[in-house]
């Protein structure tokens, strides 16, 4: 499964970025994860959407051409980060890059609730008409107190979290195959 990954934090030592790199390595037999760089996307501008800069077009194409999308979100003030929302707004117009796209969410935060508020907003955004993503139901990967569950190299160290993530990835693989089978029948 060719997976485009979007990380909602652009800081160098991002736990969410490290989590996606960890998944890239651990699940390489299931998912070929390509991490998209959203740092240099310009602010979404409706005046520009039909003639977007090449960088935006390339980002949008990467999402469209992937079999599935993985989004790792931090929680900023009870929601997703501005950079992530900006990237998704570009996706939501012209070509509707997420339409029907199997999508898996993960999130890591320092707080105990592990991005639950951000992920609730994210699910709402992904169900907007311009997005219409096929988000894996349930299977909420909420990694709270992530600084206590990851080592300096970005490896998860908490066995319960690893086992849960293994299960969710297996579930996502099944979800992806089902979605594909339904699309082939249509
Ligand atoms: C602007 C800002 C707002 C934040 N708001 C929240 C929040 O609402 N809930 C929470 O659990 N953590 C919050 N945090 C702490 C983040 O969980 C923490 O910075 C985390 O490391 C961000 O993810 P990252 O490591 O991928 O950058 C906030 C951090 C920043 C910088």
Automatic annotation (TrEMBL):
Transmembrane segments: none
Chain ranges of the NADPH-dependent FMN reductase-like domain: 1-147
Protein's name according to its UniProt entry: NAD(P)H-dependent FMN reductase
Similarity comment text for this entry: Belongs to the azoreductase type 2 family.
GO MF entries: FMN binding; oxidoreductase activity
InterPro entries xref list: Flavoprotein-like_sf, FMN_Rdtase-like_dom, NAD(P)H-dep_reductase
Gene Ontology cellular component list: cytosol
PANTHER family associated with the record: CHROMATE REDUCTASE, NAD(P)H-DEPENDENT FMN REDUCTASE LOT6
Any Pfam family the entry gives: FMN_red
């Amino acid at each position: 499964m060719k997976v485009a990954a979007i990380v909602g934090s652009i800081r160098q030592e991002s736990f969410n970025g490290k989590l996606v790199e960890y998944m890239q390595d651990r699940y390489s037999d299931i998912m070929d994860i390509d991490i998209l760089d959203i740092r240099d996307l310009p602010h979404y501008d409706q005046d520009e959407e039909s003639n977007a800069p090449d960088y935006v077009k390339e980002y949008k194409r990467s999402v469209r051409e992937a079999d599935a999308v993985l989004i790792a979100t931090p929680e900023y003030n009870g929601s997703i980060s501005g950079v992530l929302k900006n990237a998704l707004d570009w996706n939501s117009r012209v070509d509707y890059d997420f339409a029907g796209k199997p999508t898996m969410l993960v999130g890591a935060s320092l707080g105990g609730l592990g991005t639950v508020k951000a992920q609730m907003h994210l699910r709402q955004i992904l169900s907007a008409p311009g997005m219409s993503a096929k988000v894996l139901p349930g299977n909420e990967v909420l990694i709270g107190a992530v600084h206590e569950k990851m080592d300096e190299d970005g490896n998860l160290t908490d066995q319960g979290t690893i086992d849960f993530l293994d299960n969710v990835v297996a579930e996502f693989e099944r979800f992806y195959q089902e979605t594909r089978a339904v699309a082939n029948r249509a």
